[in-house]
Amino acid sequence: MSPREVAAPHEVKARLYILDTNVLMHDPSALFRFEEHDILLPMIVLEELDQHKKGLSEQARNVRQVSRYLDEMLTDTADLDRGLVLPYAQGRLYFQTAAHQQALPEDLAGGKADHEILAVTLALQNRHPEKDVILVSKDINLRIKGRTLGIRVEDYQNDRALDDVDLLYTGAETLSADFWDLHSRDLDAWQESGRSYYKISGPAIQRWHSNQFIAINVEEGAPEDFAAIVREVRPEHAIIERITDYRSDRHAVWGILARNPEQNFALNLLMDPDIDFVTLLGHAGTGKTLLTLAAALHQIFEQKRYSEVIITRATVPVGDEIGFLPGTEEEKMLPWMGALEDNLEILARGSDEGGSWGRSATQDLINKRIRVKSMSFMRGRTFLEKFVIIDEAQNLTSKEMKTLITRAGPGTKIVCLGNIAQIDTPYLTETTSGLTYVVDRFKDWAYSGHITLRRGERSRLADFANDAL
């Protein structure tokens, strides 16, 4: 064999992707995400799409969008056997135009949709050995079945915000003890409107983001030697500002004090009128809801910055459904708002001057400024000068997050709370959650901020359960 023959490149097979229904229900634009590769939709997928097209859910809207895409592409196509030209991609879209006879194991027999998709994939794999036939599905069990049959299967990857959740931006960085030795040469410092600012140059600023927190000595129980927020990042320098210490009694927010550095950082974001969008991540008991409500009430009643609080959340049950709920929109949402009631009870205790009557009056006053809304009726709305809280945001898709965030009008602040370790929505993972998506996309925007809360402050029992269970 000649050297030329040895060096011949390995022939790369063309790919044919078979899409499962759940991929299109999750992301209608998946049709255009496979670049130069071809796509085939089995007939059973079209049938399932037709069954899910009615309703007001996000999945139903996605199905209708897929139908519109297909209708637009079919308009100028006379021969379906040649496939449809895919806009924004170089591949072609094919439909199953004939029955594919492929025997499956007896355990997989029957008219189940998943099994029909497997049968079509196997038939195409045998009919087109010159191609890599790949089944794409967000259904883990279908992917397992496919692997047992020798089918090449993949998860839909294009909706991932990150390859690894450990790479998710935390919103804070602990500086090394020798930071000032390396960055004090060209340091400028000044005060403006009672705030302290520093202009810093050096190697560390290249990895900073807008409104990121930097601190020296953030050990548990010890005050920071230095804590600041990054206000501006340029290639040659960064401008940072000393933060307000919300652990001090004179900076209490509706009677609430920060108990650890991350909570202090969170309150700096929540109380900053120049930050329109805040994301708070953390496990149960880290204080996400309490801090957010305290900041909202303080800015509504004390500073008159916002007119009211709007609270919504994804209504995904952890256990069994409790059935039909009578009443108005707010009454239907109340069973999902147990965390809200618990935290409002804590905040109302801050008014002890009038005893139980004073607490009751405070509770009534607070309740008049809080509105609980369902996500189902958010489209088309615009919130003006509102403090909007989106709870359990880890259960939302990136598209649902976009729908909610774009409701913000002038003077509105939106805060997203969640724990990406507790996702209850099918087909969402830590890397594909809408909360992960917005944390990553907003980290360089000058009017947003993020912090990950790590230390629980609920009780020693809750902290031990989070660590041990």
From TrEMBL:
Entry GO MF terms = ATP binding
Task: Identify the InterPro entries for this entry.
Answer: P-loop_NTPase, PhoH, PhoH2-like, PIN-like_dom_sf, PIN_dom
Q: Enumerate the UniProt keywords alphabetically.
A: ATP-binding, Nucleotide-binding
Domain of life per record: Bacteria
**Residues of the PIN domain:** 15-144
Q: Does the keyword ATP-binding apply?
A: yes
State the coiled-coil residue ranges: none
The GO cellular component terms are: cytosol
Q: Does the keyword Lyase apply?
A: no
Q: What's a Pfam family in this record?
A: PhoH
Q: What family name appears in the similarity comment?
A: In the N-terminal section; belongs to the PINc/VapC protein family. Belongs to the PhoH family.
What's this protein's name? PhoH family protein
Record the organism: Acidithiobacillus ferrooxidans (Thiobacillus ferrooxidans)
